[in-house]
Amino acid sequence: MEIAASMLNANLLNLGEDVRMAEQWGLRMIHFDQMDGHFVPNIAFGPAFVAAVRPITSCFLDVHLMLSDPMRFIDTFVDAGADNITIHAEIEGDIPAIIKEIHAKGCKAGISLNPETPPEAIRPYLADLDMVLVMMVHPGFGGQHISDECVAKLPVLKQMIAETGREIPIEVDGGIKRENAERVLEAGADILVMGTGLYGEPDPTAIVHEMREVWNAHLNSTRR
Ligand code: DX5
Ligand code: ZN
Fold first, then answer.
1. What is the pLDDT of residues 114-153, one digit of tens each?
2. Looking at residue 120, what DSSP letter applies?
3. Contact between residue 137 and residue 157 where contact means Cβ atoms under 8 Å apart
4. How far is the CA of 110 from the centre of ligand 1 (A)?
5. Is residue 113 within 8 Å of residue 64, measured between CB atoms?
6. In a mutational test of the pocket of ligand 1, which residue from 30, 87, 134, 141 has the highest number of ligand atoms less than 8 Å from its CB?
7. Are strands 43-44 and 29-36 parallel, antiparallel or unpaired?
8. Is the CB of 143 under 6 A from ligand 1?
C-alpha cells in the first residue's frame, strides 16, 4: 500500500512545507491535480507547480490530468518532473497515442475512470498501463464523500488486471479517509490518494501509522 498526498487542498502559500510535511509523515508520493475548467468545473495548478516541487523532493510525483486535451501538455508535464501521468478514459482524444507519448518521454502512464465510467472502459489499454486511477467522487474538488458504486468497481478491476498477468496498481482518489481505508483496501485499492483526510487533520502522522496497521492486518487476513 502507498499513500499519495494530494496537494489540491494543501496550503498553497507554502507548497514546499506541505511537501516536507508529507515526507515527515512517511509518504513517498505526491499527487498533483491538474484541471482545465472544461473537463471538470474547476481550474488547478499547471506545470509550474510540479516544476517548483521537483527540486525539493525525491518523492514520486503523480500527476492527474483532468484535461479534455491532455496530449498538448504531456511534454510540458514530463519536463516539469512528473514520474507518472494519468489521463482520463472519458476524453475524446487518441488514448493509445497519448500513452505512447508518455512512455516515449520516459514517464509512467495511468488512466482514470470517472464514477459513471464502467470498469470495462479500461480493458483496451491494460497491456500498456502502469496504473489505473479510480475516482471515488466526481472529479474537480477535494473534501467530497466516496460513493458505494465506485468502491464496487474495485474488485472487478482487480480481477480484470489479474487476468492480464501484469501487476498494475489500482489508485483510488477522492474522499479517502482513515475511516474508509479498510473498505477500499479490502475492495482492491493499492494506492490511496488523500487530501483533506491528511491536510487539516490534527495528527496526520498517527493517521498514516494507523492506515499502515490496517494494511498489515489486511495482508495477514488474506494470507490465512
Ligand atoms: C478530486 C481530486 C483529488 C482530490 C482529493 O478531483 O482528483 O485528488 O484532491 O481530495 P480529498 O482527499 O480531499 O477528497
Ligand atoms: Zn486527483
1. 999 999 999 999 999 999 999 999 999 999 999 999 999 9
2. G
3. no
4. 17
5. no
6. 141
7. antiparallel
8. yes
For 63-93, write each residue's pLDDT tens digit.
Answer: 999 999 999 999 999 999 999 999 999 999 9
Closest CA to 86 of 116, 114, 66, 72: 66
Grid cell listed for 78: 514530463
How confident is the model over 192-211, as pLDDT tens digits?
Answer: 999 999 998 999 999 999 99
Q: Using a 6 Å cutoff on CB, does residue 174 contact ligand 1?
A: yes
CA-CA-CA-CA torsion for 30, 187, 174, 128, nearest 10 degrees? Answer: 60
Determine the atom of ligand 1 nearest the C-alpha atom of 6: 9
Model confidence pLDDT, tens digit, residues 160-195: 999 999 999 999 999 999 999 999 999 999 999 999
State the amino acid at position 165 in one-letter form: G
Q: Is the CB of 134 under 6 A from ligand 1?
A: no
Q: Which of 164, 169, 181 is nearest to 86 (CA)?
A: 169
Quote the pTM value. Answer: 0.97
Q: Which residues are the active-site residues?
A: 33, 173
Cβ-contact 131, 171 below 8 angstroms: yes
Gap from CA of 223 to ligand 2 centroid (Å): 31
